[in-house]
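#struct-help
A.M.: can someone run this one for me? Single chain, 137 residues.
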Amino acid sequence: MTAPFPGHPTVVPVLAMGKTLLVTLQGELHDGTAEQLQQDISRRIADSGANGVIIDISGVETVDSFLGRILAEIAASAGLLAARTVLVGMRPAVAITLVELGLTLPGLTTALDIDRALELLARTPTPSASDGHERAT
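D.P.: on it. Structure tokens below:
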């Protein structure tokens, strides 16, 4: 991901689709951008009451341990705010690399595409951040 101005991280947009947030990653995610994205998602969940986050990685060529950790941290933060995180658009080569590296993505559910992720979020209860039980809707 290239920055619009040298030395400034690229902003990753967080779009609202009803009670679901959509994040589309393109290219490489740098440290500053990743930290800003984590903060943006957490703030948007808290402000909007979103109960789901979909992260589309179809524009990402490789998932290394850094990106894997960032995705897991985003899912953990979202879970504490009573939102589920679904990862979509994973290429077969990326899945193979994750397995070969022994990386797990705790707190993340996967779906093949955004439509299936929305279906999954619609039919699966959201856990409560405080007690681990389902949140009433």
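A.M.: thanks! The longest strand covers residues 52-59.
D.P.: also worth noting: Residues 31-48 form the longest helix (18 residues).
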